[in-house]
Amino acid sequence: MKHLRILKYVDEVARSGSIRKAAELLNVTASAVNRRIMDLEEELGAELFERRPRGVRLTAAGEVFVNYLRVQTGDVERMKSQLEDLKGMRRGTVRIACSQALALDFLPREIGEFRKQHRYVEFEIKVLDHEQSIAALAAYEVDLTLVFRPPFLANFQPLMTVEQDLVAVMSSKHPLAAQRTVRLSDCAAYPVALPDLSIGGRQVLEEACSRSGIAFDIAAESNSFEMLRGLVLHANLVSFQIRIGTLTNRNKLGLVTRQIDGRDVPRSNLILGQLRARNLPVPAAVFAERLKRSLAAFKTAKA
């Protein structure tokens, strides 16, 4: 696998935009990285990088080559995991990007259950907004995404789709906690803590408020769901999240969720997906099957 080293050099230089930075990350000298890349360019008969005063940039040939090597790297990882599988070791790495809503409970619980049977499998998890998640998938930085309202990507292949309600989150002591269902107009009567505009749930709210003319009394905004939960608890604010990302109403924190009237906010999709025609490494493929079953169970329970 020694030939893979130069491919890793090229990939890291492309990601960092600098031979020096890539060399630091790879723990080798910049001259060694540059020399190996120049040898490869000579072998290919094309320059892969445009050398600039401050860093490097991929040429058109470089774009083609980097896309090719990322596909090949993914296939190599699948091959290596299959070899390990034949040994009965079940080793490998699952690389997944997820929305913040999945980071508190759902995905950690799924990983915990999976590792009870496959304890040699490691996980690399990126918690990103939906656009960043799809970008990471397209760049072969992750094998799977589990995100709310992913943007369009031509070669994105959904594996499982689950409709999600947006719910109101509040302290059990909040006045709205006495209601089983709330309207957005009810929530607008109290100060709220909202996710920032990069979050899919906030975008759903903005669309709903634009149609209804409702204006919130926004006390705080954050790109962190952990911060929003803290504001709900300590500042007695109302916030919003998709159903799968919430805690049960009997949680120790004292948080409760209340259904928002379906006339106010439409459902949107939570989607598990991969790149089309991508051969997933064995651990990622097995974990994807587990997630599909759990999401199907969630869908059935909700129905």
Write the layout of secondary structure elements.
Layout: H1 3-16, H2 19-26, H3 30-44, E1 49-52, E2 55-58, H4 60-86, E3 92-98, H5 106-117, E4 121-127, H6 130-138, E5 144-148, E6 156-164, E7 166-171, E8 181-182, H7 184-187, E9 191-195, H8 200-212, E10 217-222, H9 225-234, E11 239-242, E12 255-260, E13 268-275, H10 282-302
Parallel strand pairs: 3-4, 3-5, 8-12, 9-10
Antiparallel strand pairs: 1-2, 5-13, 6-13, 7-11, 7-12
So, CATH architecture of the largest domain? 3-Layer(aba) Sandwich
- Report strand order across the widest sheet: 4-3-5-13-6
- Cα radius of gyration in angstroms: 23 Å
Q: Class of the largest domain, according to the CATH hierarchy? A: Alpha Beta
Helix-strand string:
HHHEEHEHEHEEEEHEHEHEEEH
Low-confidence stretches: none
Q: What is the oligomer described by this structure?
A: single chain
Q: Structural class, please?
A: alpha/beta
CATH topology of the largest domain: D-Maltodextrin-Binding Protein, domain 2
- What's the overall average pLDDT, rounded? 88
Distance between the termini: 50 Å
Beta-strand residue fraction: 15-25%
Shape by Cα distribution: elongated
Number of helices: 10
Number of domains: 3
CATH-defined superfamily of the largest domain: Periplasmic binding protein-like II
